[in-house]
Design brief:
Strand content of chain B: 5-15%
Distance between the termini of chain A: 54 Å
Distance between the termini of chain B: 25 Å
Helix content of chain A: 25-40%
Number of helices of chain B: 27
Shape of chain B: globular
Structural class of chain B: alpha/beta
Number of strands of chain B: 12
Shape of chain A: globular
Oligomer: heterodimer
Largest sheet of chain A: 7 strands, mixed
Number of strands of chain A: 9
Helix content of chain B: 55-70%
Chain lengths: ~230, ~775
Amino acid sequence: MPGLFSLLTCLLLFAAADDPYLSAREEMVKAQIVGQGIKDQAVIKAMRTVKRHLFVPRHLRSRAYEDGPLPIGYGQTISQPFIVAFMTEILKIKPGSKVLEIGTGSGYQAAILASITPEVYSVEIIEALGHSARKRLQTLGFTSVQVKIADGYYGWEAYAPYDAIIVTAAAEYIPPPLIKQLKAGGRMIIPVGSPFMVQTLMRVEKQGSKVYTRNILPVRFVPLRRGS
Amino acid sequence: MNHAMGPTRPVRLLFAIGLISTAVIAYQICLMQILSIVQWHHFASTIIAIALLGFGASGTCIALLRLKLLAHYEPLMPVLMIACGLAMVLAVNAAQSGLIRFDSYLLFAEPRHIHRLAATCLIYFMPFFLGALAIGLAFARHAPFINHLYCANLIGSGLGAALALILMRRLPPEALPAFIALTPLLAGMLMLKRPLIRSAACLPICLVLLYVYHPPDLALSEFKDLKRAMDLPGAAIISSRNSPLGLLDIVKAPALRYAPGVSLTYQGDLPVCPMVFKNGDWFGPILPWNPAMRHLILDYTTGAVAYALAKPARLLVLDAATGADVVQGLIHGQTVTAVEPHPLAAKMLSRLSADEKRLQVFPDGSRAFLRRDRSFYDLIILPMANTFGGSSGIHALAENHLLTLEGFTQMWHRLEPHGMLSVSCWLDTPPRASLKLVATASAVLGRLGMDPVKHIVGVKGWGTFTMVVKRSAITPADIRNIDDFCQRLAFDTLLPTGHAPPENRDYGPRQEGWSSIAAGLISGRGAAVPYDFNIRPATDDRPYFSQFLTVRGLERLKAIYGRRMVPFFELGYLILILATTLVSFLAVVLILLPLVKERPTHPLTTLIYFGGLGVGYLFLEIALIQHAVLYLGTPMYAAAIAIGGMLFFSGCGSLASAMIPKAYRIMPACVAGLILIYALGFAPLISLTCALPIVARIGIMLLVVAPLAFCLGMPFPAGIARLPQKDVPWAWGINGCLSVVSAPLANIVAVELGFTWVMIFSALAYAAVGLAVWVKRYA
């Protein structure tokens, strides 16, 4: 037993040396993910596994696990960890679900999705962001994520229909092609708010030919009514 | 006093002071536009407020180094003026460099941007400091001619405002600083006495000219709408034209589409169209129109509900921007009247249709138009009340005179008996804009003795909310039409009308508590309901529709959203408060610093006298601009008339001050009384003369401003003339510092208490000045 304990300690030390942000990530999962009501074990595992600090600009790595969004250039942000986890959880994806992401950004959301299901398709309109995200995802081993540089308005028809669609940046309109590419019974999630402040998420559900929308308020964002 | 009229008057210096004052004000206005383009309007005010502390700092500097500076006065003056000109050009370039450039959005996300902001303020501080140092030194050296010098300073400043407006019509914003920088260089040349050195001074002029012809591009924040549009593949600016009301850029890109909150039932393609950006912010789409068109993408948005109720014969589109609502009106209505204050946008609108019977475009402010217009309309359409996705409170301090109680009342009176008023907004969470709209309409109807329940109806889509206020009571047939419309487009009917729709389908996003709060507002006729945001209707006195933050709600916001997120609710207002605090602190330091070296003869009286003049003048100027905006319509011209008029007539007053004995004692009290009379008299004057043509209104405005401004120009030179020469720089510094503090402070007073109080505080400041003099005399 003492031998096994030493071995485990050594392994942990090696892991920590390999990943200097391991404890920060653990703390993030504990406080921001589990601590704020995320229950889906697959999502929690993904948040624990994916090295978020490798998806943010180098000078912001030390802040990668803080409870907030961070800028990644081109007026885009990497969402705060809780929002990433919450959006993934409410998509209710299972291993084998086909997911389309509109707006690859840094690739972090795609990596979280790819940790749950191998069928992740991501479209990014900004060429520079798309290229760097594709390269990053490949380097970090998320080889199943397909990244296309194109106008997200058209979705990715070749792989449609999708069980879930996640639009990472809010738009003034919901593109009709995306609704067409959503399976009946499928879900689409769109964050609503300014770049640094996702205040609510909009869930679009397709039931037969009808489409419904719902505001999903994250647990912490309770309605602001006096006395409530 | 007789010196002022004596033969040794430094004429060359007066011209130089006039020129440098022209440059400083013109530079300030142009810098405001540049900073509005690269950042946002209210950050621009903040940065400039800090940079303007250069005026206060110059007084402190002269007070501390008076003897040394005055000993080298002759060579120093041209050097300062030329350095001021060079600093004007270099400051803009340095602040745009990769090392210094800051981003307002990143202030709370990346701490290094706070350092960059500080560096930016320091850089922009330099030209103001150098210019003010030259003016302050002239005041200190030639105190006996203070009335002439101050006159040159004020008239030069007034001309600076006019010069800025003229240049903005002719030059792109990036070329403006270099062009303006030529003025202090000329002033410096004027002060140089030796021809050889004067020739050498041509070198900086050549350098500046180089910048005029080859100005470096402006580097926009990566979060500005224009920058984000330009990041799209294939994006190109197809037209760019500057004007005092803002730089208009037209951008074309294959991925730019316009369909605000379009129904999820819409299955067609969303049209690609060019977009117009004003000072880098989204302004509107350019939608094509031809008489054969029968429908538009906007027909699938909540905004189309008014057309589902009735086919309007006469439409009025206020603040029409690029004319999306005008195009929809041309398709569904018979005649459209469009009002747009931006002259370039108005020109674009008038090109939509050559048929004057169908489309009439008025390049005017909407409120000024409503005051003047005597027509009645079947439908009045207002622009979107907020911005998509929320602006993080960046526009919290933007004045909006349409969405006020008085604005709604005016529109109501221009409606035909069955006419309607339609206004939309993006849904926000927690809900604010939509509730404030409901509160405003309910309060107006309540004041008019109507029952809001019978006149207001709302429709909510997945992203937008549209409120329709009908002049006659809403009928069951109206409800059926709305219901059909909503069913077809999967929208929800929202507001209680006494005719509940057959079923509440609830297609759109639920906003918990929304319905009960809206119902409370309607039944209470706009009376306040308990809520953590400010949803009280805006008024002309406090025209801040987008200001939602309340002090009592701040703690709850912090608890719910976390400390890091709270700034993004009301970024603009919080930055203003922070800036005011910072500027006040720096001002106190700058005022107290000279006391370490030498005690002024009458420190308290000097402080109250010159500080009070600074506060009173700026507070009054800001209140007058507000009145002028409502009266003249277009904000930039209103500001130019108010500021230019005030400075010019104050300059005349300064010149006359030497002729009025004891002006320092009499005038502050007179001014205080006059301000109070003006505070009471402006509203009736506006109502009586608002229907007159613009030229007449400008004339009246100038006539009204003239006597007050004339009196305002007297106390400063009269006070300076009474001071021992050693105290003049300190007094100049106090006046500069408190003028700078007053600008953001007046904004806070306007937000919290209203513009009437801004005027009252101005009167109180002058009263304090008068009191200080009397107390000193009888003590």
